[in-house]
């Protein structure tokens, strides 16, 4: 079981991600803001960030967490719109460990988290 902090601004997709990860046995904290991420991240294993609606903010969030050490040892997983391959490249450059299309996150999110903490 991993402790996962999920920053997914889309409430419907956020609920789906939270439910899927919880059903797989992960402890999930769903947050809606940067300050919420910062508050919840301590001791977490994985940070999930959805870049679908606002890639710039999500990428800047990770860069800030890495720069000030708040990310710690947590691994970072991002989802993006498959129609925006430039977002994937930018997210990887910013330091996300894994960046997948949103559709893959919806299907395989629990397995992706498992792979990151293995």
Structure description:
The protein is α/β, with parallel strands linked by helices and 118 residues long. It has a single domain (3-117), classed as Response regulator (Rossmann fold). 50% of the residues lie in helices and 21% in strands. It has 5 helices and 5 strands. Helix 3 links the parallel strand 3 and strand 4 (75-80).
What is the element layout, followed by pairings?
Blueprint: E1 3-7, H1 11-23, E2 27-31, H2 34-40, E3 46-50, H3 55-67, E4 75-80, H4 85-94, E5 98-101, H5 102-117
Parallel strand pairs: 1-2, 1-3, 3-4, 4-5
Helix pairs in contact: 1-5, 3-4
Structural class by secondary-structure content? alpha/beta
User: Span from first to last CA?
Assistant: 10 Å
Number of strands: 5
Oligomer: single chain
The radius of gyration is 12 Å
Q: Strand arrangement, largest sheet? A: 2-1-3-4-5
Strand content: 15-25%
Short description:
The protein has 118 residues and is α/β, with parallel strands linked by helices.
Relevant terms:
50% helix, globular, 5-stranded parallel beta sheet, Rossmann fold, 118 residues, alpha/beta, 5 helices, 5 strands
